[in-house]
Write a structure and sequence with these properties.
The chain is an alpha/beta fold and about 200 residues long. It contains 8 helices and 5 strands; from the N terminus they run E-H-E-H-H-E-H-E-H-H-E-H-H.
Length: about 200
């Protein structure tokens, strides 16, 4: 692996597993190292760009492919895309991988059991879905197909978000995707720095 070779970091997992939070921390880390990065949050992109799409299997797959193509184009032009998406269907995630040049797609499975997600359901989405108030909710009324061979797996039910972040960061460093162009690390960033540096809606 050539150092500093841009690649897509694709975070997939059930709603509420921690994908967006991890994506924000990764975006800050890339920027601190002087690397070009673009964070694409699935929900934000849907609101801004794909609000005509619903939550049928067909519409979900179109949404995932659209973001996947964008990530592929960014990565081949030296930008590190970070995608935080449920992206529930394995076949479509593999299609997104195939859109990328070899070595430019890194799948991160943000794993958290459904029982833990229900227990910490801060937005009350799982409870509403279980009552039938939200249709086509992944993990309840719609399926989620976990990756079979992701590059990285983190377990946000048993790890703190910082521990999960460190696992992802270490893998990226060990495999030559994160360089040390800037010595300042994420540990030196204050909470206010992180809030300023990360917005869930990327442009």
């Amino acid at each position: 692996m050539t150092r500093n070779r841009a690649a897509t970091v694709w975070l997939t997992g059930l709603p509420g597993a921690g994908k967006t939070t991890l994506a924000g921390l990764l975006e800050v880390e890339f920027r601190l190292r002087g690397l070009l990065v673009e964070c694409l949050d699935g929900d934000a992109v849907r609101i801004l760009h794909s609000n005509d799409l619903g939550y049928s299997r067909r519409d979900r797959n179109i949404h995932v492919r659209q973001i996947g193509l964008t990530c592929s184009l960014l990565s081949r032009n030296g930008v590190y895309p970070i995608a935080a998406m449920v992206s529930p269907f394995r076949q479509v995630r593999e299609q997104v991988r195939m859109l990328h040049e070899p070595g430019r797609f890194i799948e991160v499975f943000v794993c958290c059991p459904l029982a833990d997600l229900v227990a910490r359901d801060q937005k009350n989405q799982y409870a509403r879905a279980m009552r039938g108030e939200i249709a086509s909710f992944t993990g309840v009324s719609d399926p989620y197909e976990p990756p079979l061979n992701p590059e990285i797996v983190v377990h946000t039910n048993s790890e703190t978000i910082e521990q999960s972040f460190d696992l992802i960061k270490s893998w990226l460093q060990d495999n030559g995707y994160l360089t040390y162009e800037v010595e300042r690390s994420i540990q030196s960033v204050t909470a206010s720095d992180r809030e300023i540096s990360y917005s869930p809606i990327s442009t």
